[in-house]
Design brief:
about 40% strand, 18-stranded mixed sheet, about 500 residues, five-stranded antiparallel sheet, alpha/beta, single chain
């Protein structure tokens, strides 16, 4: 059987490498995407004598395509062709795109500094910035940042191994503003006066505070800085705020990411299921709707939580309001006027749990399950491929199956190694003791039917509405919960258990 190679005109953007025709099939090999991909089209006339992986690899090698070949794709292509299927634009080999150089960048390296500093203010007593990158308190002569040069990048390769040039990064254009100088070698930014660093429109200077008098919108952009930010207006959708000393937002917050190393205070926030607040201090708000909160302190809500996920390493307090739907998790207790509703989304409350540990445990468990599922799928596929092949199976199909078995076996070995690593990490995972843990819930008015409550090792769904004021703790001796006369959260569940016992 003779294979004939032919050359024809092709569409713009596609380079035809060759056409191979014989009694069994017609094969076209083409280079796509600036020779970063090799794709094949085959029309099969005689499936028993269809192309084998060895033949196909030989054809690709004659076109100088060797290291870019995807063996699993070769196996699948030949398997499908051996079953008489016609294939179009099937990917057989891939090159690598160039990685362009990273732009030069500026790094602030100083800490926040003193809480109280002498302010440099305008006639209204505030400093108002439209676009803020970073702030930090410094002293004269202190290095406040590093200036990194751009990198050259890494060339890519076509399917034939030819280099694809990369573009070098652009240099960073840091301008020394008031109170800042650049070192003689151009690698350091040095403060010349005391204050807080500002990075605005590529200008680095020294000031003391940040106040946004209006809304955070396109005229301001994202805010990320070391210090305290005070926003007098609203934060519109998709504008993220990050600060190290704390955040105060007088108005409403939309679908945003609010991140602070200190406390956060805001009016209302409607997160639409994706908005998130992460703070290492306490959180205060009037109303949160469909917001996720991860707080390393206390959460205080004056009016309402609705369909929110609230996690706190301190306590969650809603003494004059209600929580409807969503999930509340606190280490040091939960207190609310009303929990749950007779209809609508289910409300879940957990107290006495340190959420960073449980979140990490769940992450490892999900990872292990994913690995196990992948291994089971590959094992099932291998079992089917390893069945005794029929006597009438073509040589090409047998070779393709053997190649695919080899590829999948190696993948299974890699997944097994990952599974053992995650399983070992899970085995060594330990939950620490937390002295401030307080598995206690205070209800000031009512807990509605259907609320799911978890305290310690006990989880129950409330079947009938419970009226307050009342304190709820776990009853480890009798099982279930103990419903006690109300006491403040500062009275721990452990001391109440001794009284009950």
């Amino acid at each position: 059987m003779t294979t004939v190679a032919a050359s024809q005109s092709v569409n713009i953007g596609i380079k035809k490498l060759g056409e191979y025709v014989n009694d069994a099939y017609r094969l076209n090999i083409e280079a796509h995407n600036s020779e970063l991909e090799c794709r094949a089209t085959i029309s099969v006339d005689d499936a028993d004598n269809s192309i084998s992986p060895t033949e196909l690899i030989s054809i690709l090698s004659k076109n100088e395509i060797t290291t870019a070949i995807d063996l699993e794709q070769i196996a699948v292509f030949c398997s499908e062709a051996a079953e008489g299927k016609n294939l179009e634009n099937f990917l057989l080999a891939s090159g690598s795109e160039p990685i362009h150089g990273e732009d030069g960048w500026f790094e602030l390296i100083v800490a926040t500094g003193k809480e109280k500093t002498d302010l440099e203010v305008d006639a209204f007593g505030r400093v108002d910035f439209k676009s803020v990158q970073s702030f930090s308190n410094v002293t004269p002569g202190q290095q406040i940042g590093n200036i990194y040069p751009p990198t050259e990048g890494t060339p890519g390769k076509t399917i034939t191994g030819k280099p694809v040039p990369s573009k070098p990064g652009k240099p960073n254009r840091v301008i020394a503003g008031t109170g800042v100088r650049i070192s003689d070698d151009g690698t350091q930014a040095i403060a010349e006066k005391a204050g807080r660093t500002i990075f605005e429109n590529n200008v680095l200077s020294i000031a003391e505070e940040l106040v946004i008098n209006g809304n955070v919108d396109l005229s301001v952009g994202h805010i990320s800085f070391n210090g305290f930010v005070d926003i007098k207006g609203d934060v519109l959708d998709d504008f993220n705020i990050s600060a190290t000393k704390g955040i105060n937002i007088t108005g409403a917050v939309g679908v945003c990411q609010i991140t602070s190393d200190g406390p956060v205070t805001l009016g209302t926030m409607a997160g639409m299921g994706t908005g998130k607040i992460t703070c290492k201090g306490s959180l205060q708000a009037r109303y949160l709707n469909q917001v996720t909160v991860e707080c390393r302190g206390d959460v205080n809500i004056s009016h309402e939580l609705r369909n929110a996920v609230i996690k706190a390493t301190g306590s969650i307090n809603i003494p004059k309001g209600m929580a409807i739907g969503g999930e509340l998790i606190a280490l040091e207790g939960i207190e609310a006027k009303i929990l749950g509703a007779r209809s609508g989304a289910k409300t879940s409350v957990t107290s006495g749990i340190y959420f960073p540990e449980t979140d990490q445990l769940q992450k490892l468990q999900r990872r292990l399950k994913s690995l196990v599922d992948q291994i089971k799928t590959i094992s099932s596929t291998l079992a089917a491929l390893r069945k005794k092949p029929p006597c009438n199976q073509s040589k090409a199909l047998r070779e393709a199956i053997e190649l695919r078995i080899g590829v999948l076996t190696q993948r299974q070995i890699n997944l097994d190694a990952d599974r053992e690593e995650v399983a070992e990490e899970l085995l060594g995972f330990a939950v620490n003791e937390h002295p401030t843990a307080n598995p206690k819930i205070n209800i000031l008015d009512a807990m509605k039917e259907g609320v799911s409550v978890k305290l310690g090792e006990t989880t129950e769904e409330i079947n009938n509405e419970i009226s307050g004021p009342i304190s709820i703790i776990e009853n480890p001796e009798m099982g279930g919960f103990s419903y006690l006369t109300y006491s403040p959260l500062k009275v721990g569940a452990e001391s109440l258990e001794e009284v009950v016992g």
